[in-house]
Amino acid sequence: MKYHLILYITLTIIASVSASMPPPFKRELYYTSSNPLEGSDVYIAQSFLLRSKYVTSFPANKVYDLATKKAVEQFQSGNSLSVDGIIGPATANLLIKLHLNDGYKDDGRFPEGYLYKIHISVHSNRSIPATAYLIAPNNTRIFKFPVLTQGQGPNGGYNSFSDSGNTPTGLYEIDLNSPENDPDDFGPYPVNRLTRGLAGNGAIITPDTSKSDNIRAGLLVHCGQSAEWKKGVIPPSHGCIHSWCSNIQRIWKILTLDLGVKVNKNYFGSVVPYPFNSQGVLSLELLDE
Ligand SMILES: *[C@@H]1O[C@H](CO)[C@@H](O)[C@H](O)[C@H]1NC(C)=O
Ligand SMILES: *[C@@H]1O[C@H](CO)[C@@H](O)[C@H](O)[C@H]1NC(C)=O
Questions:
Q1: Which of 7, 89, 153, 204 is most deeply buried (CB count within 10 A of its CB)?
Q2: Nearest C-alpha to atom 7 of ligand 2 is from which residue?
Q3: Contact 75, 54 (CB under 8 A)
Q4: pLDDT tens-place string over residues 76-123
Q5: DSSP single-letter state for residue 256
């Protein structure tokens, strides 16, 4: 009896501690016919559900409709969760654990129609600095530089679907833009802006970085000169890719002097859609998963 009571109390404590929604989710998601829940959180959940082998394909339309409820039930049933069609903490945690990763892998090719490629392989622990390569159209690595793709948050940063979390993996179009206005936070040199997601999580999160309904807008490859940059380690970002200013300067020089890239005017994401043809691509993949 005594042990049962202790077990009961322990389970109750565990249940109440874990009963909050994990980032990026901030609310429980469920079906209502009168005023359906709608938003980027629903879209993220739908995108994860579509990666489950238990879920039959349905449209990811940002609305928690009956098809989404059915998909949640299939996910829950296939994974031995209690089946209620509601995304509460347990279902959200399992969706993240099983389906956050996009499985994106760089194909080793240089995509036609662009002037440069940046290839970055990251550890799932984003606290560990990663190696990036600038690649020319003849598919040769012409510059190697260290980057950090860690966002804010504990334990290596929040996951890449969260506000200010790690840079999402995937393939993006990028473009060289004139410097940001604040050299302390963004460095004094032209920056590379992630303008559109083409594959992997990047395509879910940033179909076009200048659109207001993007989940992660305004991602850049940049440096900084503030005090946090002077501690000898590359500091975390809010989702941007960070490197040292000497490298960012070098990339700008190579792009403009050797590869024929133009510096396009920086509209800071305010012009919709992105007003130039993006000149490069960025490929960001996980090394260890
Ligand atoms: C991630 O890597 C950092 C730096 O190497 C290390 O200090 C930290 O313990 C690692 N975190 C996890 C969760 O493994
Ligand atoms: C590839 O292109 C780069 C940039 O134009 C050039 O510097 C390099 O020599 C080329 N490498 C080969 C193997 O052709």
A1: 204
A2: 142
A3: yes
A4: 999 999 999 999 999 999 999 999 999 999 999 999 999 999 999 999
A5: I
pLDDT per position as a tens digit, 171-182: 999 999 999 999
Place of tokens 């959200």: 92
Please, which residues have CB within 8 angstroms of residue 71's CB and are 6 or more apart in sequence?
46, 49, 50, 52, 55, 56, 58
Domain residue spans in the chain?
2-99, 116-286
- 142 CB near ligand 2 (under 6 Å): yes
Q: How far apart are CA 197 and CA 216, in angstroms?
A: 10
For a substitution probing ligand 1, which of 122, 124, 127, 288 has the most ligand atoms within 8 Å of its CB? Answer: 127
| CATH number of the 2-99 domain | 1.10.101.10
Peptide bond into 24 cis (omega under 30): yes
Cα 112 to ligand 1 centre (Å): 38
- Chain-centre distance of CA 20, in angstroms? 22
* Prediction pTM value: 0.91
